[in-house]
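Researcher: We're teaching a course module on how sequence relates to structure. For the next exercise, students receive a sequence and then see the predicted structure as tokens, so they can try to spot secondary structure elements on their own. Here is the exercise chain.
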Amino acid sequence: MGDWAASRQKARLDRREAIDELIARVRFEVRLHLAEPTAISRYDDLAEVFALGHSECAALLAHRRLLPWWERRLLTRFARRLHGRAIAGSVADVPAGEAVTGAFRVEIARLLPDAGDTGARYDLQGRGLLTVLRLALGARGEAWPDRHEVASTVARNVLVCSTAFLRRSPWHVLWPVYRVRGLRLWRL
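Model: And here is the predicted structure for the students to work with:
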């Protein structure tokens, strides 16, 4: 194996380890909430929830060209499932280190929960599982009458999605892992 191929293999391995570490941080946050829910939340501001999700999603999707095509596809699908369409779509539009709250006012307004949001538990609106969890934990989640049930259900769904992603293989692109929730069929 040549030097270029060896360095490429090492870069892929390093990138996979960085992705697994980011997922471990998310899983720790979710498990911490499931073990001991707190009354005080740091997710009260909607713009901060978006900015935090954006930075995590950007770190997850950084240097994804090092990965093989099947793993890039699974990573993009996982990031969209975890953070939502609005946050995953904003990653390519913002240079590194820039503030995102001013440029994405419409996307941030779409995350706003309302009282008639019956699909929040299963994220039928496409906000992203982690975003819905943070909204349910924050002050904005008071609009949901079943706020604690939303938080616990979404937290378990985040753990299931991340477990399925950590076992990734090329076969998952062709034959995805499905899970039935409500009336929809989700691809993990």
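Model: If you want an answer key for the exercise: Strands lie at 178-181, 184-187. The radius of gyration is 17 Å.
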